[in-house]
Amino acid sequence: xxxxxxxxxxxxxxxxxxxxxxxxxxxxxxxxxxxxxxxxxxxxxxxxxxxxxxxxxxxxxxxxxxxxxxxxxxxxxxxxxxxxxxxxxxxxxxxxxxxxxxxxxxxxxxxxxxxxxxxxxxxxxxxxxxxxxxxxxxxxxxxxxxxxxxxxxxxxxxxxxxxxxxxxxxxxxxxxxxxxxxxxxx
Length: 186
Known about the structure:
Elements lengths: L2 H17 L17 H19 L18 H16 L8 E4 L2 E4 H23 L7 H13 L2 H4 L17 H8 L5
Antiparallel strand pairs: 1-2
Helix pairs in contact: 1-3, 1-4, 2-3, 2-4, 4-5, 5-7
């Protein structure tokens, strides 16, 4: 499947998960030990804006992660950013652009792959934190896994990115296997 189409599915999938978070869950723990659910949502919503900026060839702006991106309604806050990203992804030749990511400039196809991985993983994290049972899109999971498997370990197995590969039961879902590969506890 074409990378922009898969990224759109990842944006929508994670949006549904974010919209399912209840206000009394914002202080709860997450698979990301350093964040409660509100902080995880804040990061996830900022990431959507970051990917929109990247697809528009704007420079990486780390300050968006320090803002209050959640507000009073995480689902609505996510959707505002997602609508802008969807609009940008509909532009002609967006995949042919050079996207500026936190780790540097990359071809659009690589940027779209990383965005799919990031949104998939944080969607999984939010679902786990909020107790949601999600029927994940198989194409999104496959694309996220392909990106994760090709990322150089020395770039991603560092603090603040992905942890060391975790243990995973052999009968785990593809989504849980990917989460464990990225260092999430199951």
